Structure formats: C-alpha cells, structure tokens
Amino acid sequence: MKEIVLLGASGSIGIQTLQVIRTNKEEFKLSGFAVHTNITMALKILKEFPVEIICVYDKDAANKLRLELQKNNMKTAILDGMDGMLTLIREVGNFVVNALVGSIGVLPTIEALTVGKNVALANKESLVSAGEIVMDIAKKSTARLIPVDSEHSAIFQCLEADYQKELSKIIITASGGSLREYTTEQIKIVGVAEVLKHPNWNMGQKITVDCATMMNKGFEVIEAKWLFDIPYEKIDVVLHRQSRVHSMAEYVDGSVLAHLGVTDMRIPIQYALTYPQRKALEPSTKFDWATAFSLDFEPISYERYPILKLAREAGVAEGTYAAALNAANEVAVSAFLAERIHFNEIAPLLERVLDNHTSYKNYTLEQLLAVDRQTRILTEKLMRD
Ligand code: MG
C-alpha cells in the first residue's frame, strides 16, 4: 500500500493526484496533505479523505480552518508553516507527491529524501533552484525521485539502462504556449487573460505564464540536467505544437525513442505512483487511432524566446544563477498576474536581476535559501526603479 502525502493538494496537479488516488483505493491511501491558503478545498478534501494530520502553510488560513474543524467536530490536527510541512512529511505516509509551486518546494523534497520516502516530483523548482544539493541527497538516500513533469516522465521512460554510454541527446518538446501564434506587435499589448489560455494543457496560472515566456521549458532543461545527469550540450528543445510527443531520447546510432500520449497529467502522475507498473485510467486516456492526426516539429527560435536562452545560460553558468533566476521569475510572474508589469517587461527584468547577481560556487543550503530571499527583494526593487 502506498500511503501518500500530497503537497499542494488544492492545485492542478494536486486535484489530479486525488483523482488517481480515488480510482485506485486498493493501492493508494491518502495519509496527509498540505495546501497553501485554500482552506475551502482543504475542508472538502478532509470530508472525503478524513486524514489525521494536514498542513496549511499560511498561518492565518490555518487558524481559520482550526475553528472551522471545531465547529464541524472534526479531529484532524492542523500544522502550519514550513516546519509544519516538514513535520507532516516525517510523521505520516511512505510516499510524497510534491506538487508545490515555486522554490517553497525545495525543503520538502530534501526532507522526504532524507527520511527515505520516495518523491513523485512535480515541483521542478526543487531541481532548478537546488539541483546540486537535492541530487546529492538523492544519491545517498534509499529513496527515489520519480518525475511527474510530463516531459521528464517521458524521458524517464525513453532512457535505456545503459543510456549514459549510448545516448546522444534528449529532445524536450515545447508546445509554444499561449502566445505562439502572436506577432511581436501583438505581444506588446497582450493581457493576462490571453496569456492564461494555454492551447493544449489545463494547468495552474504560474506555469501557464511560464509556458508563454518559455521559462517553463528553460526550467525543464535544467531539471533534466540534474535528474538524468546529462550535460547541457546534450539537451535540445524542439517546437511541437500538438503536444502529443512528450519528449524523446536520441541514441548514438540515430534511433530516437519517443513517448506519446494525450495531454492528460493523470498519466505521468499515476505512472510515478505505480512505477514500474502501469494501470488503466478512467475516463480513457488513449488516442483515437480511427481519427487522423499528425506530428509536426520545428526548430525553436531563441530570438523569439529570450527567456529560454536566459534560463539555459543560467543553468550552464552553474553556481546560484538558476536559483536566482527562479526567485526573480516567481516575483515577476506574480507582478504580471497582478497587472503590475507588462508581459514584455518580464524578460528585461530577469536579465537585470541576473546581471546584478553574485553567484556562489560552492554553497550550502542556507546560502541558497538566502540567495532566494535576497533575489526576491532585489527583483522588487528593480521593478520599482
Ligand atoms: Mg512540463
């Protein structure tokens, strides 16, 4: 029995993870979960899955939910803050699904690996920000890191046992995001609502903006580097508008292994939970082979997507550049969603942050977390200047 601790239960991946648990009750049990502030959702989940302990990260929201539970005569213990989240990971369950958004997910990933619990990782920021530290702990741990990000789940399935010797590159596919058909003139006047209309995937707001800027793809390059221990020069990105091929592995003889599937995140979520087995999904997640469809690939333009280039460079530069870029991006995307800055201002802002960043070569986790905090302050300051 997998006893699951679900971090980020009220988000898009969290909700789909609950769907997978709900339809596999003989194999999976929800043992605890964490939300950021969404206590309406937390209460709803508790009514269906009456677990003994949860974490509400935001302390005010946690207090509100405690009162609500008292009224309803419900006995669940509510932890709060980062300490609460780490306690939850230590105390319950044997398998952690990390579906948090942002670098807030770094410490939970480290905690789970440290106490020997497998992690299904949907929080790519754990590796973007702290890839070196996280992979170091993963190597020493008995626990595994299993990717949930659809591209990395695909690559994970396309890598052969001896891949380090025989792989020539991995190719990460990119849909192009919500603005892929927009001209540069149109992008100049684009608003939040248009950016949030992803053509293929239904996801949370932060990642949907990251798809439009291509930061998401840049982060996925860095995530792949750490997760599979592949140098940057062997990681390519290709535009594939249909999102049917989720990523590919090319071998030295020219053979390319690809992973195909419909755009439904329940597939990689469930695979991470059942790995190495597979199970059917209801409602069906199969292609309709009676209907014609095609697969198109185009080279990606770094000119059109300067943020993809920036992310790649931050990865190659190593040190704390990627952590700084991620922190700056979290601030920039929130500001964009709050209509404080325009879409076109995100890239130059991030460039300025990296220009001002002093990278550490050998850094501790504490230094990394300090970089994250200080970069957020710097980004706010540069935004106001
Ligand atoms: Mg992805």
Account of the protein in words:
The chain has 385 residues and is α/β, with parallel strands linked by helices. It is built from 17 helices and 12 strands. Strands 4-3-2-1-5-6-7 form a 7-stranded parallel β-sheet, sandwiched between helices. Strands 11-10-8-9-12 form a 5-stranded mixed β-sheet. Strand 1, helix 1 and strand 2 form a beta-alpha-beta unit. The site of magnesium ion (MG) has 4 residues, from helix 7. The site of magnesium ion has 4 residues, from helix 7.
Question: What's the gist of this structure?
Answer:
This protein has 385 residues and is of the alpha/beta class. It has helices spanning 12-22, 39-48, 59-71, 81-91, 106-114, 125-140, 150-158, 163-166, 184-187, 192-195, 205-213, 215-228, 266-274, 306-317, 321-337, 346-355, 365-384; strands spanning 2-7, 28-35, 53-56, 77-80, 95-98, 118-121, 145-147, 167-174, 235-239, 245-251, 256-260, 298-299.
